[in-house]
Amino acid sequence: MTIAATGPVRVSVDRTWWQRHGTTTTVWALRIALLVVFLVLWQIAADRWIDSTFTSKPTDIVRRLGEWAGDGTLWTNTWITVQEIVYGFLLGAVTGAIAGFVLASLNLLYRVLDPFMMALYSIPKVALAPLFIVWFGIGMHMKVLLAAATVFFLVFLNTAAGVREVDRGLVDAVRLMGGNRRDIARKVVLPASMTGLLTGLKVAIPYALIGAVIGELVASNRGLGYLINDAAAQFDTAGVFATLVVLSVVAGLLNVLVGLIGRRVNRWKPLDD
């Protein structure tokens, strides 16, 4: 028996490889099988039961991705969109986390600002795009700020909820032991609010992508949103689907990254059964 030096107590138990990874392997096998079945049915149905002009087919999408990868179109536009997503996500996440933590810690100020924040959150962010174009032009700044505005409220609301749901018993315990506001914030509120913060980060990832792509769809001459617009204007459905595949891959990679960060930050939490 071994005991981990830090974090939750882990007890090693002799189990076979299948006992340790069987469920995960089964889940992934079913996912891959479902995807393969869907793609095969799509390929078979195209031009037999449905018009591929409107739905394209997997082989055409793969061919289009190969063409774009060969001439550099895919990498250039993907890199631009990834930069907009990452910059917008970081800007929105950092400002949203700080604002959520600070405002939720100041009860009176939070109660005053709460209806205004909810009103701003309720505005469809796509409606901000024309205003952002007027303020910042059609360059990368506009897309980054549109993505950041989308991310900010999600991270802010989840972080604030995490802070406000902190166990008051823990706060009182630190006070009884002589802790000051800084000790409470650093040793109780901050760790306890991590779940809300990470939930906000995870939920915000696809919205950062949506914000950046909306900005590109509204006004841009580069990026994956521009590729969708350009392909749609030429009735190139394979190009549209190829771009959507790339966007899905980018979103998946960002989700994996946040999941890894979440595991590291939440090492102090009890292990799942």
TrEMBL record:
Gene Ontology biological process terms from the UniProt entry: transmembrane transport
InterPro entries linked to this entry: MetI-like, MetI-like_sf
Cellular compartments annotated: Cell membrane
Location of the ABC transmembrane type-1 domain: 78-262
UniProt GO cellular component terms: plasma membrane
Pfam families hit by this protein: BPD_transp_1
Keywords: Cell membrane, Membrane, Transmembrane, Transmembrane helix, Transport
Superkingdom: Bacteria
UniProt topology in membrane: Multi-pass membrane protein
Annotated TM spans: 28-45, 85-106, 118-138, 144-167, 188-218, 238-261
Primary localization class, coarse: membrane
Family, similarity comment: Belongs to the binding-protein-dependent transport system permease family.
Name assigned to this protein: NitT/TauT family transport system permease protein
Organism: Amycolatopsis endophytica
Lineage: Bacteria, Bacillati, Actinomycetota, Actinomycetes, Pseudonocardiales
